[in-house]
Amino acid sequence: MNQLMSREYEADVPGGAALPGALSDALRAELIAFRRDMHMHPELGNQEFRTTAALKARLEQAGLKPRVLDIGTGLICDIGIDRRAGEGAGDGERDRVRDRAVDGGRGMLALRADIDALPIPDTKSDCVYRSTVPGRAHACGHDVHTTVVLGAGLVLAELHRQGLLPHPVRLIFQPAEEVLPGGAPDAIESGVLDGVGRIIGVHCDPKVDAGRIGLRHGPITSACDRLEVSLDGAGGHTARPHLTTDLVTAAARVVTDVPSLVARRVDARSGLAVTWGRIESGHACNVIPQHAELSGTVRCLDLEAWRQAPDLLHAAIDEIANLYRAKSEINYIRGVPPVVNDPAVTELLHDAMTSRRGPHSVEDTEQSLGGEDFSWYLEHVPGAMARLGVRTPGERTTRDLHRGDFDVDESAITAGVELFTAAALLDAIR
Questions:
Q1: For the segment 266-321, what is each residue's pLDDT rounded down to a tens digit?
Q2: Is the pLDDT of residue 182 over 70?
Q3: Nearest one of 344, 359, 362 to 426, comparing CA atoms
Q4: CA 389 vs CA 41, 344, 407: distances in Å
Q5: How far apart are CA 203 and CA 207, in angstroms?
Q6: Average per-residue pLDDT in the chain?
């Protein structure tokens, strides 16, 4: 038995064929250990140097040739490409010639992971692999996404050595997903999509049982932008608010009135939602301050409403500020468009999962208001994202994303690797 794969398990696929590439117990244990080490050492966006080095070392150990991205963190790694193409040219030109030559121009399948963590504390007090970095945690499951793509890459590399990988695959380990507008635009600028024909990814979902995935045709996430507002005015004594700009009240009205005001100016089906995460003003209970700051997010299900959102927000905030004679300064920061799953690639993920785990391993999922910079890749190539179940079957408590106590059922790693390896093999025969 190979150290990476077990031949005892070959999943049936439609048409009576079988797919190789199941994980061995040794690889399962290694991947869990890798994920736990990454969980203990979270790194913020564009600072993922330790993570990048660990991935590079493990891929090189497997005989692969990963390349660190031009931005300094993150990397890509191709599996199954004929490295004789373009021989005699420089490294960059040789890569481009090789990419154009992939399967007559059809392009390879890319498996994408995000490698950064969040700036929040890890609150899992009873967890042996909790974060060792104060104020940093993998509370969104990026450690799982990364481990899944790494595991799939190791299995696919072994299949390639055995002559069982009929079509090349690219691994993309992307930095800075949590930093608007995300690390995907920089990764694309670094050439991660050169030679790619389709791209797939997963995102942890604590509402779905481990061993299952959630899929949806069309939009699966929403647009997400950031909004920063400064309000200024003449402060003074709280005994005489009529002689001042009552800035705290003005800020409170912006917080409470702007979301409903904007919601009445677009089609309700667009799902345009303004949610505040920070408000700051003043230092003493009897002093009306001269400055207030607010920040939050703007999320939207509909692409057209997302395009209108900046103008709508500017107008609504100015209306409220003018009522209180406050001067407003608005910084509207574009984030990410919705992730819109391509129907054919979504079906590829569906067939890949059912080939490994049967028809009951896939469930329908709803479009969420969460944002994901995976959407930027889909501006260039067709692709799809699946929701990877991470809840222990039977568990009633949900540890939601972006919370310090977030954790996963680690059997989800095996399911994710099986999904990606089966997708790579099925993609080659379509």
A1: 999 898 999 999 999 999 999 999 999 999 999 999 888 888 999 999 999 999 99
A2: yes
A3: 344
A4: 23, 22, 12
A5: 12
A6: 90
Q: Is 264:308 a contact under the CB 8 Å cutoff?
A: no
Confidence of residue 180 (pLDDT cuts 50, 70, 90): confident
Q: Are the C-beta atoms of 367 and 222 separated by less than 8 Å?
A: yes
Length of the chain, in residues: 430
Q: Which two tokens stand for residue 151?
A: 């595991």
- Domain positions in the chain are 5-220+338-428, 223-336
Place of tokens 């067709």: 382
CA distance 172 to 175: 10
173: nearest Cα among 124, 227, 110, 216: 110
- For residue 15, count other CB atoms closer than 10 A to its CB: 6
Mean pLDDT of the 159-166 span:
93
Q: What are 346-402's pLDDT values in tens digits?
A: 999 999 999 999 999 999 999 998 899 999 999 999 999 999 999 999 988 777 899
The CATH number of domain 223-336, selected from 3.40.50.720, 3.30.70.360, 1.10.3290.10, 3.40.630.10: 3.30.70.360
- 95 confidence band (pLDDT: 50, 70, 90): low
Q: What is the 3-state secondary structure (H, E, C) of the chain?
A: CCCCEECCCCEECCCCCEECCEECHHHHHHHHHHHHHHHHCCCCCCCCHHHHHHHHHHHHHCCCCCEECCCCCCEEEEECCCCCCCCCCCHHHHHHHHHHHHHHHCCEEEEEEECCCECCCCCCCCCCCCCCCCCCECCCCHHHHHHHHHHHHHHHHHHHHCCCCCCCEEEEEECCCCCCCCCHHHHHHCCCCCCEEEEEEEEEEEEEECCCEEECCEECCCEEEEEEEEEECCCEECCCHHHCCCHHHHHHHHHHHHHHHHHCCCCHHHCCEEEEEEEEECCCCCEECCEEEEEEEEEECCHHHHHHHHHHHHHHHHHHHHHCCCEEEEEEEEEECCCEECHHHHHHHHHHHHHHHCHHHEEECCCCCCCCCHHHHCCCCCEEEEEEEEECCCCCCCCCCCCCCCCCCCHHHHHHHHHHHHHHHHHHCC
**CATH superfamily, with its number, for domain 5-220+338-428:** Zn peptidases (3.40.630.10)
